[in-house]
Specification:
The N and C termini lie far apart (44 Å). 52% of the residues lie in helices and 8% in strands. The protein is of the alpha+beta class. It is globular and about 50 Å long. A four-stranded mixed beta sheet has the order 2-1-3-4, covered by helices on one side.
Length: 226
């Protein structure tokens, strides 16, 4: 089953990590995979472009089926392997509604994070402005306060959709982990820190932890003042 699957991925990429968590949760270990380097632009190689014309990671192939968008891959895996591993879409209508809501808010959080931590990567030197940096940081702060509120409302020990680990956690947790990797204050964001601590030792997350984070656990302090 898993031997018919091939994943090309990059270490520390939340979209790639989402897929790897989903594969672990569905007990699909043993899939073929290839770690590529963003720094060396390997995601723009012909090997990747042959599977994903956008030149983005992850790329995922199951038999003759190609799915490249990380959310789509997660839904595909849950749909194709419903009875295998952990169920990732709750039965409760209330939890399911909240799961979908948080899942599709996740990319907004991810985009606002990237606008801060990768500003100099995305924006050419001659086009950078201090006002844009401030605006991006303010937008991220506002977004983080929303997620703090969501978790506070659910109560201690909750997952993003309630009592059940779901696709919301699969897709959003890698962004939360990246926030703390880049120095987000646990004291300033206690709900996010509690959620991060709740999930970081989950077997699927430990098994797929970014290898370069293991090699260098220190991280960065880009977000320490957010």
């Amino acid at each position: 089953m898993a031997e018919d699957m091939t994943l090309m991925w990059g270490s520390g990429s939340p979209p790639c990590w989402r897929v790897m968590i989903a594969l672990e949760e569905k007990n699909l270990q043993g899939y073929n995979h290839k770690l590529l380097s963003f720094e060396e632009m390997e995601h723009k190689s012909q090997e990747v472009l042959d599977v994903n014309p956008r030149g983005q990671l992850p790329t995922f192939k199951h038999g003759d089926n190609i799915v490249n968008e990380s959310y789509a891959i997660c839904f595909y895996l849950e749909s194709q392997f419903k009875s295998q591993g952990n169920k990732l879409i709750p039965d409760s209508p209330a939890e399911q509604a909240l799961m979908y809501q948080r899942m599709f808010e996740g990319p907004t959080l991810y985009d606002k994070l990237n606008s801060v931590i990768y500003y100099e990567w995305f924006v050419p030197e001659g086009e950078r402005h201090d006002s844009a940096v401030r605006r991006n940081r303010e937008a991220l702060t506002t977004e983080l306060k929303l997620w703090e509120g969501y978790l506070e409302k659910l109560g201690s020990g909750s997952y993003l959709a309630g009592v059940t680990f779901s696709l919301a956690d699969v897709t959003v947790y890698p962004t939360i982990a990246t926030l703390f990797r880049f120095g987000l204050s646990a004291e300033r964001y206690p709900q996010l820190e509690e959620y991060h601590a709740l999930l970081k030792d989950r077997p699927s997350i430990k098994a797929s932890w970014p290898p370069h984070w293991l090699e260098n656990p220190q991280g960065q302090d880009t977000l320490k003042d957010i």
